[in-house]
Amino acid sequence: MESQIDLYTTELIKLQRPWRGLADAELAIAAWVDWFNNPRIHTAVGAIPPREHETNYYAQLQPRPAAGVNA
Predict the structure, then answer these.
(1) How far apart (Å, rounded) are the C-alpha atoms in residues 55 and 18?
(2) Which DSSP string do the residues of the chain spell out, in sequence order?
(3) 1 pLDDT exceeds 60?
(4) By the 8 A CB rule, do 48 and 42 touch?
(5) How much is the pLDDT for 2?
(6) Within a 10 A sphere around the Cβ of 36, how many other Cβ atoms?
(7) Structure pTM?
(8) Is 42 helix (H, G, I), strand (E, B) or coil?
C-alpha cells in the first residue's frame, strides 16, 4: 500500500498542485484510482487493463458446487 500512495503522490498530488481545497484533491484522487484500475494498460497482465484481466480470470474459472449439495 505504501508504494501505491507514493505512486499517486508523485504522479498526481505533486504534479497538479496547488490545490484549491481538499474536495478538489479528493476528486482528483478518485479519478486517478479509477484510471489506475480500469483503462490503464498494464504490461504484466498482457498489455490489457487490470479490470479486463480480472474479468478474464474469473470467466475462465469453473463453477464449484455449493457446500452441502449432493449431486
Answers:
(1) 37
(2) -HHHHHHHIIIIITTSPPPS-HHHHHHHHHHHHHHHHTT--BGGGTSB-HHHHHHHHHHHSPPPPPTT---
(3) no
(4) yes
(5) 62
(6) 17
(7) 0.60
(8) strand
